[in-house]
Hints:
Layout: H1 3-24, H2 38-48, H3 55-66, H4 71-92, E1 102-103, E2 106-107, H5 109-112, H6 115-134, H7 142-156, H8 161-171, H9 178-203, H10 208-240, H11 256-260, H12 262-280, H13 288-299
Antiparallel strand pairs: 1-2
Bound molecules: geranylgeranyl diphosphate.
Amino acid sequence: MTAQSFADRLSHARALTEACLDGLLGPEPLAGECERPETLLSAMRHGVLNGGKRFRPFLVLESTRLFAGPEDAALRVAAALECIHCYSLVHDDLPAMDDDDLRRGRPTVHKAYDEASAILAGDSLLTLAFDIIADDATELDAKARLMLISALSRAAGIGGMAGGQALDLQAEKIAPNEAGIVTLQAMKTGALIRFAAEAGAIISGASDDNRARLSQFGTVVGLAFQLADDLLDLTADAATMGKATGKDVGRGKGTLVSLHGPQWAEARLGQLVAEAEALLSPFGDKAEILVEAALFVATREN
Ligand code: GRG
């Protein structure tokens, strides 16, 4: 597959996901009669419909396609996952966490609205995600929906993203060793990516073996995603050195890149892409786009 056709598929997934999210965050309540406070809904839309690569939704859609699973259900699961990813960014940007003014080139939700709205928008996006999957409109049998809800809540919660974020905050005081860094990154960034890859197997009713294989693939892609992110931070730090605030400079501390250097990280990224490819080799050409996805993550520029 050419780089162009991979880019086309990613952009197609992005367009589908954004149309789905636009509908889910529209004026109509998702289920039942309820009022949606206008400002809160607007803050949620600000946090979600603001650009973004939509890489996690893309993985859900493509892992479902690998098993010829139902695309409509996959799209709703992809949108639900993106709601959780966006909630995490909204909360991560808050003054109590990273205290950022800009996200995806636009004011963060607490800057465009206020802190209370940003907290509530994040909370509402988190719960909306589970509502989307549980709803009958996600046309999967009840067992599959429950499996997705269970896997996603674990990926987002204390054993996954939120727990990883807590470990990351703790790492500012007590520097973790290499194993600690890998664990916290696998939780904070990797857990949602692993879920994205595994979701296609659940949506499609694939075998336990295939679900485990996709889960392992997601783990490897998650590690590559974070390592590439740390390399990008290093480049950003070098570019802003001298004019940045103290908070910005040295973001690369406590990462595998700061421990081993950029050349090691580049080589490790190559290994991770090879591991991802090997994991998907039993699927042959059908998995080509997922292998491209691993390469995309390792070589991305934003
Ligand atoms: C607040 C519970 C809670 C968790 C926050 C995701 C996160 C945990 C923090 C974000 C900090 C960060 C920059 C982590 C590095 C990896 C990462 C998640 C990058 C952002 O994801 P992308 O690159 O962003 O997919 P887009 O904007 O493309 O969606």
